[in-house]
Amino acid sequence: MTILFLLIAFSAPHTYADDISHIIEEVFHSSVAIEVEEWHHDSPYKTQYTNKQQYSGTNDYDHSRVITGSGTIIHKKHSRYYVLTNHHVVERAQRILLVLCNGDIHLGHNFRSDEGNDLAIIIFDSTKNIPVADLHYDYQPLVGEEVYSVGNPMGFLFSVTQGVVSAIHKTSFEKKSALYFQTDAVINPGSSGGIVVNAEGKYIGVSTFIITQAYIPFGGYIETGVNFIFSFYNAKKIIDALLHGSSNEHAWIGYTYSPLTFEVITDLAMEDGNAVIIDNIYTSIPRTENALQLGDLVFSVNGTAIEKMPHSKISIILPLISAMQTTDTATLTILRQRKKLTIDIPVHRRPETLQTLSYSVWPGYRASPLPRLLKQNYGLSKQDFAHEIIEVYPHSSADASLLQPNDIIIGIDDQEELSYAEYFSLLHHAYLKKEELTLHIIREGNTRIHITLSPPSNTQHTSRYKQNERKHTSNDIYRDSKNVY
User: Is this prediction's pTM over 0.85?
Assistant: First the structure.
């Protein structure tokens, strides 16, 4: 009796932490660390990643680099295993190595991608019996519930972070498309593609992207930690298409858009920013008279209002369009020249990769109004027009013209006192008339240059990387102590 009493008295009680630890251990068994060798190209003017098959690597700027990511084994067929990860982890891969939690290393010899949903499948072979995760397609995450993100942040293998579901971003359309949920569970580079589970051990999503910086009016840019997870809820069709190698067709309308900034909202005297602005047109897509125009503000798609998500990579407009049939027509409510309109836009089949059409995008760059408090750093007043280039699309007109990120646009042709509506109007007029534009640029803080932006042609532009390190001529750059033209 005494021995039995001692065993009962000194045995450790089972705790909630024990349950979670057991769940995470099980998750580790089906998780993989991904090491990707990808081709990297350093331009003399900017850094950009390209495809090794397209660029032979004969100049000093081509080399490879290694990035890390995360994934989960979700299917097995005979001795073949299928690993789910993000498309952006493997999109430029030349070689893929997979590391299991027991230390085994496998070569990923094939993968399939769904760029529209940022998902991919890596395939490897093994004669061992490796656990396979069971994804929960019928479970919708609940705001406030605990979640755990498993991955390889910054190369630290098989790490776990804890958080809660902060919000559900309902980007589904008639339950045809998946949704994202937001969490405060810490995600870092290397976490992409990692599995997310809840406290019951249900596999509910994939870590996809983070918002690392946001602009606060009158406060400048601040660091954030807003993390987004691709939810498995209602996503079985998407995953099955990847597993079986079938095409997961996405619809699109051939434009790019950005969330509104404080400067645009103020300039247009809007009450709120619940809209997106059309900032690029894929000119190779057939257009009707009712086509969208550069600078149009889109407020709703098929009767569903745009969800305000400042400075994020997603907005409700993308999945609303993506989930439609390619024979459908999208009905958009827009604001154009301060007039509210309802227009019908034909829906097209989205290419497997938009890189095949990048030559046709106009103007070929993404830009954002320079915050008023930062204008003084460039010798500008708060009222001066200034658009900072954030991204240049490869092979586009902007790329061929040698525009680069961080360039500041302060005028077009002979106009410098521009409103944002006038800026987009000039860009759209050049698109319609197939005319060149001269952009007035501030580069690297104290250099002012003129760059000619030519309309896109029907054939792909010669990339700057195929040129012999093309540089600006003396006619391109004008310098003096007063930074004037």
Answer: no
